[in-house]
Design a protein that fits this description.
By secondary structure, the protein is mainly alpha-helical. Helix content is 54%, strand content 0%.
């Protein structure tokens, strides 16, 4: 019994300290309560063309879109087959 009271008291102290630390940051340009993100000094206002720009390759993006389109087509075939037969088949070549 005594051990559980000590554990509860320790937990309460840890929570109180944690809440005090979390509430201590007031931010300088808060858009709303708790929304105080600010970029590091030197981070550009516009990312495009800066060193932070990911510069995605259009060919790679096209590959990803093709894969997603193919996936949607396979799922449509599976769903259509399921509606007709009531059986779900993962391998589209067996349809």
């Amino acid at each position: 019994m005594k051990k559980s009271i000590v554990t509860l008291a320790a937990s309460a102290v840890i929570l109180a300290v944690g809440a005090g630390v979390a509430g201590a940051y007031d931010g300088t340009q808060c858009k709303a309560a708790g929304v105080c993100w600010e970029p590091k000094p030197g981070y550009p206002d516009k990312v495009a063309g800066s060193k932070y720009d990911p510069k995605h390759d259009p060919k790679e993006l096209a590959k990803q879109q093709k894969a997603l389109d193919d996936q949607s087509a396979r799922n449509a075939k599976r769903a259509e087959h399921f509606k007709k037969t009531g059986k779900w088949v993962y391998d589209v070549s067996k349809l």
